[in-house]
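Exercise 7b. Backbone tokens:
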């Protein structure tokens, strides 16, 4: 095929595209249902991929929140254990002006 023939084919194709007859000339009408089916499948795959990506983003955000909450929980547990110690209690009682002291003698057992 020579160059003029190629240009004529391209020109005819462009005219057919502008008139809306290009797909009819190619005989695509026999496969129209299958083309629509494939298009719907591709759209569904893209939509599912976007939903999965969104879900994974939420999972990552929630992991960060859980890590921060775990750190807070450890700090609160440490603070609570510090409040339970005898030295902390003795120090607070002294600050409040209490004369309460540790016992000098061991407790006496009445019954064995």
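Sequence design result:
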């Amino acid at each position: 095929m020579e160059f003029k023939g190629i240009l004529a084919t391209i020109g005819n194709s462009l005219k057919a595209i502008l008139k809306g007859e290009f797909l009819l000339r190619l005989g695509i009408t026999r496969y129209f249902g299958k083309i629509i089916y494939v298009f719907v499948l591709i759209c569904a795959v893209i939509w599912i991929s976007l939903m999965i990506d969104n879900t994974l983003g939420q999972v990552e955000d929630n992991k960060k929140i859980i890590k921060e909450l775990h750190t807070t929980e450890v700090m609160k547990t440490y603070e609570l254990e510090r409040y339970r110690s005898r030295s902390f209690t003795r120090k607070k009682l002294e600050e409040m002006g209490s004369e309460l002291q540790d016992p000098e003698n061991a407790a006496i057992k009445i019954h064995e």
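Instructor comment: The mean pLDDT is 89. Residues 45 and 51 are 10 Å apart (CA to CA).
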